[in-house]
Amino acid sequence: MNVSIERKRTDCAALPKGWQREEVLRKSGLSAGKVDVYYYSRGMRADTSLIPPIRQTASIFKQPVTVVRSQDGEGKVKRDLQHGTQVKPKQLFWEKRLENQIYNQRRQIALSERAYR
Fold it and tell me: GO: which molecular function terms (predicted)?
C-alpha cells in the first residue's frame, strides 16, 4: 500500500465550528496502514499558560490532595454556620427501636397487672 499522505488535517463538519480532525497513518507495527484520528479545537490553550492546581494537605486525609477551583481568584466559602444554628441529626433507627421496646414493656406490665386482678 503506497500512501503519499501521512497526516491529513481537515475541518470537522460533525463537530461545532472551529474543531479540526487529523488523520495520521501508522507506519509500522502489526497495525501498519491503519489510521489514528485526533480532534483539535482552535480555542485550545497551551499547557504552559495553565495555572497548576494547588497542592494542600486536608486535615482529615493526612495526605496531599489537589484543590481545583472552578472560579478565578479566591472564591468565598459558604459555611453552614452562616445559616444559623443547625439541629444535630438524630439516629432515628435506634430511637424508634427503643420507643418500640419501651411500649412493649409497658404493655406487658399492664397485661400482667390485669392478670393478677
Answer: DNA binding
What is the DSSP track for 16-57? -TTEEEEEEE--SSTTTT-EEEEEEETTPPPGGGSPPPEEEE
User: Whose grid coordinates read 507495527?
Assistant: 29
Which numeric CATH code is attached to 7-43? 3.30.890.10
Domain ranges (residues) in the chain: 7-43
Distance CA 30, CA 26 (A): 10
SS3 96: helix
Q: What span, in angstroms and rounded, lies between the C-alpha atoms of 44 and 39?
A: 11
> Which residue from 39, 38, 37, 41 is spatially nearest to 18, judged by alpha carbons?
41
Mean pLDDT by 10 residues, the chain (117 residues): 70 86 90 90 62 63 63 54 64 72 81 76
Dihedral, CA of residue 103, residue 109, residue 110 and residue 113, to nearest 10 = 180
Residue 22: burial class (beta carbons within 10 Å; 0-12, 13-18, 19+): middle
